[in-house]
Specification:
Strand order of the largest sheet of chain B: 1-2
CATH class of the largest domain in chain A: Mainly Beta
Number of domains of chain A: 2
Largest sheet of chain B: 2 strands, antiparallel
Distance between the termini of chain A: 84 Å
Number of strands of chain A: 10
Order of helices and strands of chain A: HHHEEEEEEEEEE
Radius of gyration of chain A: 36 Å
CATH superfamily of the largest domain in chain A: Rieske [2Fe-2S] iron-sulphur domain
Largest interface: A-B, 52 and 56 residues
Structural class of chain A: alpha+beta
CATH superfamily of the domain at 25-350 in chain B: Cytochrome Bc1 Complex, Chain C
Strand order of the largest sheet of chain A: 2-3-4-8
Helix content of chain B: 55-70%
Number of helices of chain A: 3
Oligomer: heterodimer
CATH topology of the domain at 25-350 in chain B: Cytochrome Bc1 Complex, Chain C
Distance between the termini of chain B: 59 Å
Shape of chain A: elongated
Number of helices of chain B: 24
Radius of gyration of chain B: 34 Å
CATH class of the domain at 25-350 in chain B: Mainly Alpha
Helix content of chain A: 25-40%
Strand content of chain B: under 5%
């Protein structure tokens, strides 16, 4: 570059130094605005699909809980008179997502009887959700998974039992003399209080 | 050719990419100890291939999952092999992951600058465990169903968000269609995508930092990934594959239990073997400590392992890490071993497992014999099967008095002696011949424990039949044929058809002077009195259902009924249940090589 031209350029740039700075600031601001707009446009564009996705995925939280109406489970004559528990399948109408089922198995209960009084226990272990079994000699309940153990009333009978609460009792009504109706419900496992699922 | 490749390279730059991938420099040359990562990539590729093809036949809904897996396993050409490879490769992957992790820890390969890659690996480990957990449920069989229930129960124990988390996982408050669709999208969509991304990141970081070499490697000349290390990796992958194939062939393929049933207990519910230690671990936490045992402690352990790259930088940090990792592994092995020992020493677990196996095989047999699963699904199919349901109903309702081949229907021996007849073979010629045998009629097998022990039938057999001449005896045999033919027992109808002449003769002999059944029993149009049960249709489905419904009806025992409850009239059993127990006693169930085969 010749001295002349250098001189020339100097004379040209000198008065515009501050305006050059302005231009840099201006460019930064422009870049920031363009960048911010790009992010905003992208985010806006993604908002609907992501929103729809999240809302749909969270749908189970908004679902009505499974109805806990009384269901006819057995007749009193089917429950042993000696007070030993017997397992009964609970058959009920239910809707599973898109499908409606008539009279299909939804769970099971242990029924016990003393005289006319009938008591019902949900078979599901309050510890971790396994299916509690009856000991061979009918003397107590015991869970085959983590060895929770309960007496025949469903009360925890062993201090080392991992179950945080007694087996879940269910409401029972005897109607028309011998129909055993049970309000079938499941409860959240692993907690001391009985919270319906 | 060359020109075409040049053109392609010019447009894509593939040569430089290949060069970079293949000619990675390995200080000290290729080694067997570097194979583990590659075998894991191989395993993932196998899972991807087999998984995608399984997907092509799998149906993720509560009435299609077990059914479609049964189809893959039993009907689809090569399906058992495909599923077997997928199943056992998943297990081998866990072993390889642990080996890989232990090697990284022992070699100190997590140290700076490789911390991030170590964390990538830890996340990959958890993703793979997530894949196992979600995959276990997909066949929707009893074992997957009940084992996964425990897993989602544990999720629900999470403080504050637990119940919501469980609902999101399960797709509602109860297991159903949405549980499967959600587990499936995790298993086949989200988790594999995350694994793929992390593997790319893992390999990228590995290449960036290079292999961690042992001291001995410094004296040897450098080598390249291609071809020496690739050969070793290839051989290792081959051994992995051979192991998996060996496991598939040895086991006969992946197991499929009976269809999931929310109303049937499954006492043998256990997670996959590599989760058994967690299962066992939970037994040691008393009430109120579940969250600590199931979540807090495992979380802390994981956090400690994640902190190992940092700890490893301290003076004795590396030794500490190796010590902790070894102790953890030993603990896991011990808990797993304990779980196994406790289970195999528990007779109830052992019998539950055997029972589960019977149901599993029967479900599969039913599906094949019915030439497909009815549209109501595998569970409905199994619940309508007399062979497996009959004995359960018998055990619960009949075995207080009756026996079946001397046991309670399910093979156990009730404490009290029998007080009514043994119903095994009821309706057959053999059963009747026993009843009419003077030596046997008053034993426990027949009327021994009942009021009928001193009744007219016993007297007739012990005084009358005992004195029959050989000729009358042979007539009696024909009468037995005739009465037994009334039942149209599925296993006897063919024989009955062949011996129709003798049966006709027997029918006529029913009212003969010596035998004279019709003096007390009604048989077809022959009757003098109806003291004992009607013999028309004796042992048929209708006759037995009627007897179960109400034995005090006139056509059965009437007022002479001993203690037999009116199972139908008193609604102790439903029509379906009575049908199942009757069909079972009559040997009327879907058999292999029955009609249509």
């Amino acid at each position: 570059m010749s001295e002349d031209s250098l001189e020339e350029s100097k004379t040209e740039t000198e008065p515009t130094l501050s305006s050059g700075l302005d231009r840099v600031v201006e460019k930064e601001r422009r870049d920031f605005l363009v960048g911010a707009s790009a992010v905003a446009a992208g985010t806006l564009a993604m908002l609907a699909p992501i929103g729809a996705a999240v809302v749909s995925l969270l749908d189970p939280l908004r679902r009505e809980k499974v109805s806990s109406e009384m269901v006819l489970v057995a007749r009193t004559s089917a429950i042993p008179e000696d007070g030993s528990p017997r397992k009964f399948t609970v058959m009920a109408d239910r809707t599973d997502a898109w499908a409606a089922y008539d009279d299909s198995p939804v769970g099971a209960v242990y029924l016990r009887r003393s005289g006319d009084e009938v008591r019902a226990l949900n078979v599901v272990c309050p510890h971790a959700g396994c299916f509690v079994g009856v000991a061979k000699d009918n003397s107590r309940f015991s869970c085959p998974c983590h060895l929770s153990s309960f007496d025949l009333d469903g009360a925890v009978d062993d201090p080392t039992s991992p179950s945080p609460r007694d087996m879940d009792t269910l409401d029972v009504e005897v109607r028309n003399g011998d129909e055993v109706w049970v309000r079938f419900q499941n409860f959240l496992p692993g907690r001391a209080e009985k919270t319906p699922v | 050719m060359r020109g075409m490749l040049d053109w392609l390279d010019n447009r894509t730059g593939y040569r430089a990419l290949l060069q970079g991938v293949l000619y990675e420099r390995i200080p000290g040359g290729a080694r067997w100890r570097y194979i583990w990562g590659s075998t894991l990539v191989f395993a993932m590729v196998v899972q991807l291939i087999t998984g995608v093809v399984l997907w092509s036949a799998y149906s993720a809904n509560a009435q299609g999952a077990w059914e479609s897996v049964w189809f893959i396993q039993n009907q689809m050409t090569g399906g058992w092999l495909l599923r077997g490879i997928h199943h056992y490769m998943a297990q081998v992957t866990i072993v390889l992951l642990v080996l890989h992790l232990m090697q990284v820890l022992i070699d100190g390969a997590y140290r700076a600058p490789r911390e991030v890659n170590f964390w990538f690996g830890l996340i990959l480990l958890q993703l793979v465990l997530g894949l196992s957990l979600t995959g276990y449920l997909l066949p929707w069989d009893q074992k997957g169903y009940w084992a996964t229930k425990v897993a989602t129960s544990i999720a629900s124990m999470t403080p504050v968000v637990g119940p919501g988390l469980q609902q999101l996982l399960v797709g509602g408050s109860e297991y159903g269609h949405l549980t499967l669709t959600r587990f499936f999208v995790l298993h086949a969509g989200i988790l594999p995508a995350a694994v793929a991304l992390l593997i790319v990141g893992h390999i990228y970081l590995f290449r960036r930092h290079g292999v961690t070499t042992p001291k001995s490697a410094r004296e040897k000349p450098d080598g390249y990934f291609w071809p020496e290390q690739v050969l070793k990796d290839g051989v290792a992958s081959l051994i992995v594959m051979a192991t998996v194939l060996g496991l598939v062939l040895w086991s006969g393929g992946a197991h499929l239990g009976a269809p999931a049933d929310p109303a049937e207990p499954y006492a043998a519910a256990r997670p996959e073997w590599y989760f058994l230690f967690l299962f066992q671990w939970l037994k040691y936490f008393p009430a109120g400590w579940e969250v600590i045992g199931a979540q807090v402690i495992p979380g802390l352990v994981l956090a400690l392992v994640a902190a190992m790259p940092i700890i490893g930088g301290w003076k004795y940090g590396h030794r500490f890490n190796v010590g902790v990792a070894t102790a953890l592994l030993a603990g896991i092995v011990m808990l797993t071993w304990q779980a196994r020992v406790q289970d195999s020493a528990d007779p109830e677990f052992v019998s539950a497992q055997a029972e589960a196996e019977v149901l599993a095989e029967r479900s599969s047999e039913l599906a094949s014999e019915l030439s497909g699963i009815p549209v109501e699904g595998g569970l409905a199919m199994l619940r309508a099967d007399p062979l497996t349901q009959g004995p359960r109903i018998f055990e619960a309702n009949c075995s207080q008095c009756h026996r079946f081949e001397g046991h309670d229907g399910l093979g156990a021996q009730p404490a009290d002696p029998p007080s009514a007849s043994d119903l095994a073979g009821f309706g057959t010629r053999e059963w009747l011949a026993g009843l009419l045998d003077p030596e046997r009629v008053t034993t426990d097998e027949y009327f021994g424990g009942t009021e009928h022990v001193n009744g007219r039938m016993s007297r007739f057999v012990q005084r009358g039949v005992a004195r029959f001449s050989p000729e009358v005896r042979s007539n009696l045999a024909k009468v037995i044929m005739a009465v037994s033919a009334e039942g149209s027992l599925p296993l006897q109808v063919e024989q009955d058809a062949v011996q129709l002449a003798e049966i006709e003769e027997g029918r006529a002999l029913m009212s003969s002077e010596e035998i004279n059944c019709t003096r007390c029993h009604t048989f077809r149009d022959q009757t003098e009195g109806d003291v004992g049960p009607v013999l028309t249709g004796w042992g048929s489905r209708d006759w037995m259902l009627g007897m179960l419904h109400d034995p005090t009806e006139e056509r059965f025992y009437g007022a002479d009924n001993d203690r037999m409850p009116s199972f139908g009239a008193e609604k102790i059993l439903t029509e379906d249940e009575m049908g199942l127990v009757v069909d079972w006693l009559r040997g009327d169930w879907v058999r292999q090589d029955s009609q249509g085969h």
